[in-house]
Design brief:
159 residues, mainly alpha, elongated
Length: 159
């Protein structure tokens, strides 16, 4: 099942609206608003610079980080049942809906990242340790003498 192509503008518009509704009742702290609106500003940068791989990478990273911070904000600042009015219930519901929608948005933004030429490389340095370097040619010194004596000259004393 192939997901339809969704515009980056639509993703940002939906998350902006849900964030505004989530911040409507001052139930969540200001850091919730700052974090989400900052990531949406980076998303606007990704819209403006269509060929920029950095902009879409930072937007995707910001979305992934706000998933974590939204979980923390909602779980810490969720009000007790007796203090939950209809407006607060709506506000927290929109914040939770935004949180539930972010993994789908991350997937769609990741597809845009791949369309812009991004590669999914995860290199921790272990896989490249055993590469064959026999075809390596230094470019700074053509025909440079070998750094170590060859093993075929076993008769010469080593110093």
């Amino acid at each position: 099942m192939e997901l339809p192509a969704v515009s980056l503008k639509a993703i940002i518009l939906v998350h902006w609206l849900l964030t505004v509704w989530g911040c409507m009742n001052y139930m969540l702290p200001v850091s919730y608003a700052w974090g989400n609106f900052s990531v949406l500003a980076v998303g606007i940068w990704a819209i403006v610079q269509r060929d920029s791989l950095d902009a879409i990478t930072m937007f995707l990273t910001g979305l992934l980080l706000t998933v974590l911070t939204d979980i923390i904000h909602i779980s810490i600042f969720y009000p007790p049942r007796e203090f939950l009015s209809d407006a607060k219930r709506f506000s927290i519901g929109m914040a939770i809906f935004s949180l539930l929608l972010k993994p789908v948005s991350c997937y769609l933004v990741y597809r845009m990242y791949r369309e812009r030429g991004g590669e999914c490389t995860f290199n921790i340095g272990v896989a490249g340790a055993g590469q064959d370097r026999s075809s390596y040619e230094p470019i700074d010194q053509p025909d440079a003498p070998p750094q170590w004596p060859s093993s075929s000259k076993a008769g010469q004393p080593l110093y």
